[in-house]
Design a protein that fits this description.
The chain is of the alpha+beta class. The protein is built from 16 helices and 18 strands. Bound molecules: ligand BES and manganese (II) ion (2 copies).
């Protein structure tokens, strides 16, 4: 990278951090209407930043939280890059487990601790500062600073809660307001997203696969009211027991999911992939220590990385029934419920899983129990072919920013919009994660390494030129 950009990056380090901290102070909990004002404030703040860089910027109103859209001018004969990210954050609960308050960004050991630090404000904004550094280079070293690609930004505020506003936008519901189709507005050669992790500290990565997901809530009903568990126990099926019985039948003790046909469409990991995962030096012992468990558990016949990155899973995300208060209460509850999800791999179809599960639950539902299955959301998994020339370009940008070439990994997380970009707009996505596995995203004490933040900005500043240079 040229010296002008490097100088600009080092001169502006503190200001980049100050700007990020200011943004992190806005509690943009997109899913909670009590925080609508702060969520909007975070969107407006971001839109202002784009405007100040001279980008054509829009705050697009939706049925939910606003979208922030910004673009640089088109470049005749040049490529277009669409950067996607999200300014909404997960609720910070349980707040009492945070070392410092979630919306008071605090630096400890070179990390900034705050909700949204890594997911996704801290990662997303590297692409704004990366562009700023590129543009500021005008004139330094004889470079004219003119951008060799067009960059478009689409930053949403409902990623953590289903993305209804973005969905409606992508389906064209707001076309009238923008004077062209959404496909025209978002037209690009490649999407870039920084909303995942590196392989390890000092080991940057390009993520070439994400899992899909299907998320359910199961309601189980028994007698018409809560009963005395002595007077009535042993005479009717208890919904809490029934729920436990049903859920334990979904996965066996070998970690194999028992929903009929569940594995039919699973694309198996290739020998090459298994070899490549094996070569990353992953340590089960370190992983156990990191998680505070004595043993790992997962689908028999697969390594930990294969399970995390390439095999479908089933996990209960929440359960409730009966008495939750202090002390003991002998109750036979009338209802029970659970939230659970399957992570899917290509080419599993979430709708097929839904149908098969509904049928299985009907068969195993005990006598005297009624159930309802609600499907919250679903999205298929994704893999980008490893040979893509965009990967080679991103690889060079990352090598420049991090001082070492990235490894290629997959991830167990889901970014459903990647499928919409692929299937609705025909555009592939480069996943360039600057986070770390232990950044506590969605947990208390979420953090982001400031060193990684600056390396991410540096890589972003290099990316535009690398993409322009591609054949
Ligand atoms: N940034 C994450 C996705 C992610 C996390 C990718 C870790 C790779 C590694 C994103 O914000 C997220 O939380 N996604 C949800 C999607 C769901 C709500 C549809 C997820 O994966 O649970
Ligand atoms: Mn995210
Ligand atoms: Mn998230």
């Amino acid at each position: 990278m040229n010296d002008g950009i490097t100088d600009y990056l080092s001169q502006n380090k503190q200001r980049f951090e100050a700007d990020l901290f200011e943004w992190l102070r806005m509690a943009s909990i997109g899913t909670d209407s009590a925080y609508d004002d702060q969520t909007r404030q975070a969107a407006v703040w971001l839109a202002e930043k784009f405007k100040n860089l001279g980008l054509e910027t829009d705050l697009i109103e939706t049925c939910g939280q606003p979208l922030v859209y910004a673009q640089t001018p088109p470049v005749a004969g040049g490529k277009t890059v669409l950067v996607y990210g999200h300014y909404d954050v997960q609720p910070p609960d349980p707040v009492e487990l945070w070392t410092t308050p979630p919306f008071e960004p605090t630096v400890r050991n070179g990390n900034v601790y705050a909700r949204g630090a890594t997911d996704d404000k801290g990662q997303m904004i590297t692409h704004l500062f990366g562009l700023e550094a590129y543009l500021a280079d005008r004139g330094v070293d004889g470079s004219d600073g003119s951008l060799p690609v067009q960059v478009k930004y689409l930053i949403e505020g409902e990623e953590e809660s289903g993305g209804a506003g973005l969905d409606a936008f992508l389906k064209g519901e707001y076309d009238k307001d923008i004077g062209m189709t959404v496909a025209e507005k978002l037209d690009a050669d490649i999407v870039v997203i920084s909303d995942c992790s590196q392989y390890a500290p000092g080991k940057p990565a390009i993520t070439y696969g994400l899992k899909g997901i299907i998320y359910f809530e199961l309601f189980v009903y028994g007698p018409n009211r809560d009963l005395h568990s002595g007077a009535f126990g042993g005479t009717v099926n208890n919904p809490a027991n029934a729920l436990a019985q049903m859920l334990t039948q979904i996965k066996d003790d070998q970690g194999r999911i028992q929903v009929p046909g569940f594995y039919d469409d699973v694309v198996e990991l290739t020998e090459e992939e298994r070899g490549q995962f094996g070569g990353l030096g992953f340590s089960d012992d370190d992983f156990k220590t990191q998680l505070g468990v004595e043993d790992l558990f997962g689908e028999a016949g697969f390594t930990t990385l294969e399970r995390r990155w390439g095999r479908p899973t089933f996990d209960i995300n929440g359960m409730w029934s009966g008495y939750q208060g202090e002390g003991a209460k002998t109750v036979l509850p009338a209802e029970a419920g659970a939230k659970f999800s399957f992570r899917l791999v290509p080419a599993q179809d979430p709708n097929k899983v839904h149908e098969a599960l509904e049928k299985m639950l009907a068969e195993i539902c005990p006598a005297g129990i009624r159930f309802e299955l609600k499907n919250h959301h679903g999205a298929p998994g994704f893999v980008l072919p490893l040979g893509s020339p965009f990967m080679a370009a991103a690889s060079r940008a990352i090598e420049s920013g991090f001082g070492t070439a990235p490894v290629f990994v997959r991830s167990g997380g889901s970014i459903p919009v990647v499928n919409q970009f692929k299937h609705m707009l025909g555009i592939d996505t480069l996943l360039l994660g600057w986070g770390q596995d232990d950044d506590n995203l969605h947990s208390p004490d979420e953090k982001f390494s400031l060193a990684d933040f600056h390396k991410g900005i540096h890589s972003s500043a290099c990316l535009w030129g690398e993409i322009a240079k591609m054949d």
